[in-house]
């Protein structure tokens, strides 16, 4: 044991933010050991965290900068690569440049990318994959509560007396939060309600399983609220003192359309189950409402989020432990990437770019001699793709840090068409991925184990990464690479950081929620929850205890009527198709599919088909079938199961050999521009031998 080093860090996969030690031998990371001190994971890890060391030493890691010359990628020096990028980026007008930041990268990298886009490229066309997972949360909860983040902490979920999980397969996507849901039931006697179109592992402990149709969330939530109001179970004092807009809410949710009988028809549920759920949520509190992308990834994603917030305000389940609206953010640092302003409308700390005072604040702080991007909103990533296909020539150059839109974005054929209309593409990553096919320059970055930094988990807890080993070849920190390009474009002074800690100090200076944080303070095992405004502030695990973060301190009811998904099943495409993830893989699989252990567990993708539907089509478990939507079709292995709702099909999106996003729809929520990954129409075809 004496030659082993244990270096504390935070898991690079999901937004739970478990801590572990990287085990280092002879300068090489050879294992992980869960942190016993961490209040998030208390000495436990899920399989992804357990094997989060395996991809680090993959021979596939990018090691040197490359430029595409005569169609071939050629290894070059950093000097040549950064000069080439600077010369090319300078050819374009600010409005022709755009950037994608990364929810997998650290806060320091995201802040650097935000500053690079606004100060060097002079554009607000910057976004990242939060657009695709929780932009509806950011927009929806900001309207309802004045803050678009999880209201409570992970540990206090175990203090709930009722957990209402809707649209979250917590056991597979956030396993160490799933543990808290079970603890609430086992240790605290909580009622456990699970609402989802699939009977997933998360449904196992359920006292009540609501297997409803995908895309009927607002109808269900409005129906629950009608029952609560009809029975007088609402929290009158909370509504009176802490909220506004209740009469508007009543006008919508008390409509006949949301009677329990009608809601049962829309959702496919038993009316008695809806009544039981309403009773438990209102009367068995504190109730923690937990949701994820089953709520957010819809054309009505913002309405869905508002409906969750409405239910919790109606029942007074906010501002106290064991309650709250708890969106589970997907990627390790998607909360941080949003906090850092890797968004087209915000500087760091959700300071609006269109507010002249904020514009002046950042211009003064950064001191770019020729100013920064104008005080106007930029394009969201989904809009960037539409602009590229619908108005070729408006956007010409894209700088991508740690994202893989060619597998993660909806309707891949549409994304390919968009990329074909770009003139200059830079990709900065740890592995060669599908998007690199379109890159003019590829730059190698170090991974989480090879760097110092911070990330912010789903409960707003800022935690440290510590460098355990050197990166491969000439790989560098993302913020360091951006600083080198910025220097080549004439902005060396604005990117003169010498360490991650110096970048963090700048973040703390300009970002009110992080103002009281420093690397020294973050060394404590449990990190710090934002807002943390002064060096003495212990952080804020539970938001909205006395008042909401809105201008007048009141929570706002935003009622909405139910609308069906943009594409519903019909005679030609009779199934409702939905997508998601599995326990052993992560997003586009660049890391988990290079982990031998995880890849062995689940080596390829599949489509889930309800047993009765499969029997009607003569499809057997394990056979290859054609799955076809209006976008495209693909051949994939059938997994025939009674666990999925009749009429619904499901695919995970990790696998390039059967890419679910070839089939998905890029219909967008009109407010936040999130795509509807969770519902589109599909046809299944049995493959018959010729
Ligand atoms: Fe990592 Fe999430 Fe698993 Fe924790 S629950 S070990 S953060 S993947």
TrEMBL record:
Entry GO MF terms: formate dehydrogenase (NAD+) activity
Enzyme class: oxidoreductase
Annotated InterPro entries: Asp_de-COase-like_dom_sf, CT_Formate-Dh_H, Formate_Dh-H_N, Formate_DH_asu, MoPterin_dinucl-bd_dom, Mopterin_OxRdtase, Mopterin_OxRdtase_4Fe-4S_dom, MopterinOxRdtase_cofactor_BS
Domain 4Fe-4S Mo/W bis-MGD-type residues, every copy: 4-60
EC number: 1.17.1.9
Keywords: 4Fe-4S, Iron, Iron-sulfur, Metal-binding, Oxidoreductase
Pfam families named in the record: Molybdop_Fe4S4, Molybdopterin, Molydop_binding
UniProt similarity note: Belongs to the prokaryotic molybdopterin-containing oxidoreductase family.
Protein name (Swiss-Prot/TrEMBL): Formate dehydrogenase subunit alpha
Organism: Methanocorpusculum vombati
Gene behind the chain: fdhF
């Amino acid at each position: 044991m004496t030659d082993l080093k244990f270096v504390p860090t935070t898991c690079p996969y999901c937004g739970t933010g478990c801590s572990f030690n990287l085990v280092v031998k002879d300068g090489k990371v050879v294992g992980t050991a869960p942190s016993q001190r961490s209040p998030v994971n208390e000495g436990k890890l899920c399989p992804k965290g357990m094997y989060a060391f395996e991809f680090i030493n993959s021979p596939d890691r990018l090691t040197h900068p490359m430029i595409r010359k005569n169609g071939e990628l050629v290894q070059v020096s950093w000097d040549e690569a950064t000069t080439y990028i600077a010369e090319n980026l300078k050819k374009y007008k600010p409005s022709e440049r755009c950037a994608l930041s990364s929810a997998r990268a650290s806060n320091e990298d995201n802040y650097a990318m935000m500053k690079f886009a606004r100060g060097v490229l002079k554009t607000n066309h910057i976004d990242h994959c939060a657009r695709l997972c929780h932009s509806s949360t950011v927009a929806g909860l900001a309207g309802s509560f004045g803050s678009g983040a999880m209201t409570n902490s992970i540990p206090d979920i175990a203090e709930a007396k009722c957990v209402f999980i809707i649209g979250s397969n917590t056991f597979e996507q956030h396993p160490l939060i799933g543990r808290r849901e079970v603890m609430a039931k086992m240790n605290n006697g909580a009622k456990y309600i699970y609402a989802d179109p699939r009977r997933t592992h998360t449904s196992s402990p359920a006292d009540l399983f609501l297997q409803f149709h995908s895309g009927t969330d607002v109808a269900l939530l409005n129906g629950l609220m009608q029952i609560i109001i009809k029975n007088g179970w609402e929290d009158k004092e909370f509504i009176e003192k802490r909220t506004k807009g209740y009469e508007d809410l009543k006008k919508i949710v008390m409509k006949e359309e949301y009677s329990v009988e009608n809601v049962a028809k829309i959702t496919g549920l038993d009316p008695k189950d809806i009544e039981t759920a309403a009773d438990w949520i209102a009367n068995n509190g504190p109730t923690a409402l937990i949701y994820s992308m089953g709520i957010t990834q819809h054309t009505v994603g913002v309405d869905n989020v508002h409906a969750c917030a409405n239910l919790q305000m109606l029942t007074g389940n906010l501002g106290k432990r064991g309650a709250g609206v708890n969106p589970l953010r997907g990627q390790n640092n998607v909360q941080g990437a949003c906090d850092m302003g890797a968004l087209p409308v915000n500087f760091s700390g959700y300071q609006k770019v269109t507010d002249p005072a904020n514009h002046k604040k950042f211009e003064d702080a950064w001191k770019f001699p020729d100013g920064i991007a104008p005080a106007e909103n930029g394009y969201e990533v989904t809009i960037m793709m539409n602009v590229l296909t619908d108005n070729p020539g408006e956007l010409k150059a894209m700088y991508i840090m740690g994202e893989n839109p060619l597998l993660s974005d909806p309707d891949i054929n549409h994304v390919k068409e968009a990329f074909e209309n770009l003139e200059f593409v830079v990709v900065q990553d740890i592995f060669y991925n599908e998007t690199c096919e379109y890159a003019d320059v590829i730059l190698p970055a170090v991974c989480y184990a090879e760097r110092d930094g911070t990330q912010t988990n789903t409960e707003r807890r800022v935690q440290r990464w510590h460098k355990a080993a050197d990166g491969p070849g000439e790989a560098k920190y993302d913020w360091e690479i951006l600083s080198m390009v910025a220097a080549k474009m004439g902005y060396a002074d604005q990117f003169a950081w010498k360490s991650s800690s110096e970048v963090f100090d700048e973040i703390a200076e300009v970002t009110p929620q992080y103002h009281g944080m420093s690397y020294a303070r973050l060394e404590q095992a449990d990190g710090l929850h934002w807002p943390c405004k002064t060096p003495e502030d212990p952080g804020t695990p539970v938001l909205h205890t006395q008042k909401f973060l809105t201008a007048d301190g009141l929570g706002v009811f935003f009622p909405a009527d139910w609308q069906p998904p943009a594409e519903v099943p019909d005679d030609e495409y009779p199934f409702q198709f939905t997508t998601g993830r599995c326990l052993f893989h992560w997003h586009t699989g660049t890391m988990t599919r290079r982990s031998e252990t995880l890849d062995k567990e689940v080596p390829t993708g599949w489509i889930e088909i309800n047993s009765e539907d499969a029997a009607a089509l003569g499809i057997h478990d394990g056979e290859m079938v054609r799955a076809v939507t209006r976008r495209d079709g693909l051949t994939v292995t059938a997994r025939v199961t009674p666990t999925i709702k009749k009429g619904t099909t499901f695919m995970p999106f990790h696998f390039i050999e059967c890419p679910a996003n070839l089939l998905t729809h890029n219909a967008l929520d009109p407010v936040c521009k999130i795509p509807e990954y969770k519902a589109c129409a599909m046809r299944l075809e049995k493959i018959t031998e010729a």
